[in-house]
Amino acid sequence: DTACDRLAFVLGSLFEIALERDLNQNSEYEKKTENMDGYVGFHAALRNCYSRFVRNLAKECKQLVRHHLDSVTSPYSMACYENSYHQGGAFGSYYRPNQASGGSFCFELSDTGRDEPMKDQENIPPE
Fold it and tell me: In which domain of life is the source organism classified (predicted)?
């Protein structure tokens, strides 16, 4: 959650920096005496929309990270990958998936059991 929040903060800060840079580079807007309500309103709406986008992106990121953590730590994944910790020289312990037990519990999704290739049924006209 913290990493997603930090990334969202960085995205928000980048937007603020871009707005300030644009304002400094385009200083002719400050010199005009015209009505600037539309310009200011547009940038306020843009800032509001972007901040809402970043909040939704952070929320989706957190949900995706939680989903992946749940799937990695699920009983199914534990059956596929036994924890095999070995003492390694200067690197300490490391995780190695157990390939022998993985074959007995995990199914190969690409194996259809057919020898002939699948035909693309989507683009074939009805007979």
Answer: Eukaryota
For 80, residues 6+ apart whose C-beta sits below 8 A from its C-beta are 97, 101, 102, 105, 106
Q: What does the DSSP 8-state code read for residue 94?
A: E
Give CA–CA dist 96/21, Å, rounded. Answer: 49
Beta-strand ranges (E) seen in 15-101 are 85-88, 92-95
CA 123, 125, 127: angle at the middle one, nearest 5? 145
Does the reported pTM lie above 0.70?
no
- pLDDT tens digits along 61-81: 999 988 888 888 887 777 766
Question: How far apart, in whole angstroms, are the C-alpha atoms of residue 77 and residue 105?
Answer: 9
